[in-house]
Write a structure and sequence with these properties.
Layout (H helix, E strand, L loop, with lengths): L1 H11 L17 E8 L32 E5 L3 E15 L6 E7 L7 E5 L2 E2 L5 E7 L5 E10 L18 E7 L1
Antiparallel strand pairs: 1-3, 2-3, 3-8, 4-7, 4-9, 5-6, 5-8
């Protein structure tokens, strides 16, 4: 009987270990860029991130467009579709009053297409979009896509084929 009591006590015993981690933090100043859906524009994929996507959907010179897409101009040689999006540049630990926003195409635009942010036509060379942006607030911009109405092979775009382009944005503290 005594052996049974001793083995029961051994099962209830606990071991304890403690430890400490000393962490060092170095706070650095910096900025981050975030793309947000504008209430008047198309809903962005990955909204609220620095890697958002924007889908114009199916476009044409005439006919319906996706919600948030407008067609501000239709000319004999081209038409333009447009949507709004917001850029927020978040700063921490900086003493600069503003930032400069630039944009460029990652690769040449497909044949028959011209991209512009606001009134600035984009190429593969960085273009200034905004010189004195305000930190920590959504700033509205427009993405304009002008499409040639020339026939494919004559300077016009391919028809019925989904096309993808990448626009790289850079925010630089002033």
């Amino acid at each position: 009987m005594m052996a049974l009591l001793l083995s029961s006590t051994a099962l209830l015993a606990q071991d304890t270990a403690t430890g400490t981690i000393n962490a060092t933090l170095i706070n650095k100043s910096g900025i981050a860029i975030v793309f947000d859906t504008d209430p008047g524009g198309v809903t962005l994929g990955n909204n609220g991130s620095s890697a958002a996507t924007l889908n114009f959907g199916t476009i044409s010179a005439f006919g319906p467009l996706s919600p948030g897409i407008t067609r501000p101009t239709v000319l004999p040689a081209s038409y333009t579709v447009k949507t709004l999006f917001d850029v927020q540049v978040i700063e921490g630990g900086l003493v600069t009053p503003s930032y400069t926003l630039s944009a460029q195409l990652a690769a040449a635009a497909p044949t028959g297409f011209t991209y512009a942010v606001d009134a600035v036509t984009l190429t593969t060379v960085a273009q200034t979009i905004q010189a004195n942006g305000t930190y920590n607030t959504d700033v509205q911009h427009s993405l304009n896509l002008t499409v040639s109405t020339a026939a494919p092979g004559s300077g016009g775009p391919a028809v019925g084929i989904p096309l993808t382009s990448t626009i790289n944005f850079t925010a630089t503290s002033n």
